[in-house]
Design goal:
By secondary structure, the chain is mostly helical. It is built from four helices and two strands; from the N terminus they run H-H-E-E-H-H. It has a single domain, classed as Large-conductance mechanosensitive channel, MscL, domain 1 (Non-ribosomal Peptide Synthetase Peptidyl Carrier Protein, Chain A, Orthogonal Bundle). Helices cover about 75% and strands about 5% of the residues. A two-stranded antiparallel sheet has the order 1-2.
């Protein structure tokens, strides 16, 4: 069982996934601070409320909090946009690295084949 666990833990990109997950958790703290410290107070001020979540209305004894819905939408859009930017940058770096890495395996095999043909002629 210990050997199977060793194979499992070293197989694939489990370490990279773990590092990515930890980074995402701390990145979420940055997003939360940006939303809570900057964006939500601005929106609350626009609506003339002291707290963002106070935006809403009463129906009978119930309070309908539009602020919570706006909160969820804004959080989703900001996180999606930032992830888009991160992935866009990552894909560009990855493409640049692939271009800088030299000829592909197919190119090398084609070159070897052509040299072998030239030597046999």
């Amino acid at each position: 069982m210990l050997q199977e666990f060793k194979v499992f833990i070293t197989k694939g990109n489990i370490i990279e996934v773990a590092v990515g997950l930890i980074m995402a958790l701390y990145f979420q703290a940055i997003i939360d601070a940006l939303l809570e410290g900057v964006l939500y107070p601005i929106i609350a001020a626009i609506f003339g409320k002291p707290d963002f979540r106070a935006i809403g209305f009463d129906i009978g004894d119930a309070f309908i909090s539009i602020g919570l819905v706006i909160d969820a939408v804004i959080s989703f859009v900001i996180v999606a946009f930032i992830l888009f930017l991160v992935l866009r940058g990552y894909n560009k770096l990855k493409a640049d690295a692939a271009e800088d890495s030299g000829p592909s395996e197919t190119d090398l095999l084609t070159e070897i084949r052509d040299q072998l043909r030239a030597n046999n002629s």
